[in-house]
Amino acid sequence: MAKANWIDVSYFQDPNKFDYQAAKKAGIQGLIIRAGYGKTQDTAAAQHIANAQKYGFMWHLYHYWYNMGGEDEWAVQNAKRLGLTANQYLFLDMEDKSLPADWNGQFAVFRKAVGDTYKVGLYCSDSPYKAKFQDSQLQQLKVARWVASYSYEPANYDIWQMSGAGSGGFGSYTGDIDRDYTKSDILSLYAMTNVNPVVTKPTADLQYIQPIMLQPGYDTETNIYGLGYSPDNGVHFYVTYTTFGAKYRQEDADRLWKYLQGFVSKQIHDAVSLTWDNIKGKPDLVLRSDLPDFNQFALKKDLPDTSGLAKAATVDAVKTTAESALSTAEKAQSTANANSKTLADKANKSEIPDISGLAKKSDIPVLPDLNSYALKSELP
């Protein structure tokens, strides 16, 4: 749901009681003020305009139409008396029941009277708008379409009056205030297109005649051209935006510093107290102190040519084979030595028995065959 960002006021909203500051806090950007009705100026118009400027609101005017003779010319002159500029809108409010049926023709008369003096807008309810006007034609004529509809959002509009009676007020002001919504910046463009700001010296009764914000002009101190502002009705104009970027004065920096100093102090403190261990997401690096002293190493060009040498792996394999062969040879030598010693020991003469006293086999007589003899026990 769209939220109201403009309101329209008249003498029904007493400017002496109206809570402008509360309206500003509620998000209201500007006021569409009734300048007059018929050939009578709204008694609160000038004060609403002064307060709109005092509290920093944008503003435009509307005229309540009765279709009186010469009313169109009177409405234009009345807007001039109230200080409306060429970049602001003068809306024609067409809603009175006494109006003739030809609303489109009456609006054409009003537009002709306004001419190029002001931008032209039309206010009416959605039903007569659709019945009496051609939307495409109004858009072609660059007419600002201010359409009222309290129960639904109209199909075609630039400003939508969302509510009327029963809307309530703002802050301390409890009276009804019509609420409006603009979905574009159509009502804000005049603040950036007034090339020649109105310069009016402040008075005790009226401090500001016209707000000058983000308007083009020449800086009164540097003569630089750009968008700027005036705090004293154009007596001094300070450029803040140029084709080369933003421009700041010392006063701007002083105003910002109180908001920035806490942040800056924290950033400086954090930077001073920062250590390697506190850094998150740092890359996997080593410090210079962690690296070896490379002065102890020879450069590649200083190393001998090793292209004709065997690889370390080959040398290691040969060494292992040689060590294995040596171990096998040593074991064989040990076994041979042991066998040789055993044979030597067996061949030692001291271990052979003395057979010098024994008879030779040829000297032993042949014994008879004892099988032919009986045992002594068998004799009678």
Q: Can you tell me about this structure?
A:
By secondary structure, this protein is an alpha/beta fold. Among the domains are: 6-189, TIM Barrel (Alpha-Beta Barrel); 212-257, no CATH class. 29% of the residues lie in helices and 18% in strands. The protein has 8 helices and 13 strands. The chain has helices spanning 20-25, 45-54, 71-81, 103-114, 126-132, 135-140, 250-272, 312-346; strands at 6-9, 30-37, 40-41, 58-64, 89-93, 119-125, 144-148, 159-163, 178-182, 212-218, 225-230, 238-242, 245-246. It has an 8-stranded mixed β-barrel, surrounded by 4 helices. The longest helix has 35 residues, at 312-346. The radius of gyration is 58 Å and the shape is rod-shaped. Residues 192-200 have low confidence and may be disordered.
Task: Please give a quick description of this structure.
With 380 residues, the protein is an alpha/beta fold. Among the domains are: 6-189, Glycosidases (TIM Barrel); 212-257, no CATH class.
